[in-house]
Specification:
The chain has twelve helices and twelve strands. It has 350 residues and is α/β, with parallel strands linked by helices.
Length: 350
Amino acid sequence: MPLIAVLPGDGIGPEVTTQARRVLEALDLGLQFEEAPVGGAAYLVAGRPLPPDTLALAKRANAVLFGAIGDPRFEALERQLRPEAALLGIRRELGLFANLRPATLFPGLEDASPLKPEVVADLDIVIVRELVGDVYFGEKGRRTNVEGLRQGYDVMSYNEAEVERIARVGFEMAKRRKKKLCSVDKANVLETSQLWRDVVNEMSTDYPEIELTHMYVDNAAMQLVRRPTDFDVIVTGNLFGDILSDQASMCAGSIGMLPSASLRAWSGDNGMYEPIHGSAPDIAGQGKANPCAAILSAAMLLRHSLTDEASAQRVEKAVGAALAKGARTADLGGSLTTTEMGDAVLRELV
């Protein structure tokens, strides 16, 4: 039986993960679930954000269902002890270099987007974000410069193999969709981005059927607001992808609607699945969190790690049907609690 590691984490993580697990259990697929602490919750019980037992579970599981991490109580700790270090650690240890972040506007949510309905109608984007390189994983530190001033530094770098493997995921995704790929960089000022663009161009000869375009990240941010439906698949680096995917979430109505999959290959053996929202400690424990992103992450788990497309579509259709009937949490202008939203999705699971 497939084993799913459930890592609820901090803040609203346990609340939304519970609803995603309820949906997976309702499918009656014979899945096994094992839970472990991570992030600030793990620090409280084990003195570190990623205990060895949690990492071992993640490694032996068929897939990881992740909640959220982050807790302001631990912001003064050394960086390696903060909750966020757990997420970076899992990505690194499992080799999860490819992050898929779909942004889809479900029918009926047009008014939830801050953009005009006619601008976001039929929005359906996938952002392919490189996940284990760039400034997040580069050399970093603090020093005193020649003028005696404190200076922080973070090194952005990619080698050609790292660019090639994430670009291939982007091309393969585009091949399965509308055959359009936009590579986002900042090649006009960054040498790292120039290498990125060179490698992507070289790879395009392997995919003659794909319409490849390039866009600077600042222009991409503007176009996501101006003409978001012009995009289909976007491939970009870690930093740019982090920012653009959060922006895309608001085009889709709420960050509470966006799932993600972190993979180490096109097929997601041992992948990790999580909503892109944070831990939202200000509403934790109040039943206000939208569980749809976590539930849709569970659908991605079914699709990529368990290769069960039929079940993935069942979950996605259930979310869409619940929304179409007016089910809304507070972020979408409604009044349903987290559990009630989960109930609404379960009622539509056919």
